[in-house]
Amino acid sequence: MDTTRIPTTGALQGLRVLDLSRILGGPLCGQILGDHGADVLKVEPPSGDDTRAWGPPFKDGVASYYHGLNRNKRLQFLDLSSASGQEKLLALMAQADVLIENFKIGTMEKWGVGYAQMRERFPRLVWCRVSGFGEDGPLGAWPGYDAAIQAMTGLMSVNGERDGGPLRVGLPVVDMVTGMNAVIGVMMALHERQRSGLGQLVDAALYDSGISLLHPHAANWFMDGKTPQRSGNAHPNIAPYDVLQTGTIPVFFAVGNDRQFRLLCAHIGCAALVQDARFVTAGQRSVHRDALKALLEQALAGFDGDRLATELMEIGVPAAPVQAVDAALDHPHTLHRGLRVELPGYQGVGAPVKLSRTPASYRHAPLTRGDDFA
């Protein structure tokens, strides 16, 4: 046995994960488990994961998109539609604690290696299925795509400017949250397995994740029955909670309570606003948000945005300059928090969850070959 391949750190050391998934939700789940010490073997079809072609940019013919989701895994290729591929898959299942897959519902069953067919043969295996809509129901077994789910679950309807049209969130939020939900489900199932000795099916559907993201819009609708509308950068329930223009740059203000509002007004020379009947309470500020925004921006015109945001944070008023991606990734605090990862020939975003005794580690760059579990 090559002991150099066995993770020696991480909360999930000793866990063996078979990642049969592709695109985003499943691979992200596998990467998170791998970051925290699991031995993850990614199995791709001979043609490779589709995201290898999702560029530019490319490195050695493989897109950055793929690189962002597949570190801390070792890789092999199998044709699971073939008898030999299925035989090899069964051998891998026998070694695995967790299996992740996001094939179209019914595909693995057609090959004779679906969950129900394998449950008795591998009773301890935690099987994580990432799908678009789940197995059954009115939309059951439909394929799922992030943008389509954003449209169907109402996310697009509340995203965008107030006088504009529905807008897709500028990153694959549904796919990513589904991957995170899959990790949560896997960890719950592994915890329960300690008591029962049995694995189970973890069902993580994009549709469910999309619906779950509707706070506070769903909560508002349950209470007042009014269809939520787009509000641009503004919060539907809180004001000022919006991007406001300063004398230099736009700054986001997240003023969530009366104390923060008083501090803001005093700092920018608008103490009188605190006594204005329209702005005395959070509820009144929300109702009169347009008038409040105009008055605040008038006062903010005399301030440097970067400096003001720093000053406000120092006195307890949430405020932040609106930064581009490159500025965020290069920020000193990003580096301090270990959110930039470098391996030979690879750069990526680090693990956001920090454990004090068993931190994440970065052992395998994407495309590291491996023939089996360690």
Automatic annotation (TrEMBL):
Looking up Pfam families in the UniProt record yields: CoA_transf_3
State whether keyword Transferase applies.
yes
Alphabetical keyword list? Transferase
- Taxonomy, superkingdom: Bacteria
Q: Which GO terms describe its molecular function?
A: CoA-transferase activity
InterPro entries found in the cross-reference section: CoA-transferase_III_domain (IPR050483), CoA-Trfase_fam_III (IPR003673), CoA-Trfase_III_dom3_sf (IPR044855), CoA-Trfase_III_dom_1_sf (IPR023606)
- Which named protein is this? CoA transferase
Record the organism. Answer: Comamonas antarctica
Q: What is the lineage of its organism?
A: Bacteria, Pseudomonadati, Pseudomonadota, Betaproteobacteria, Burkholderiales
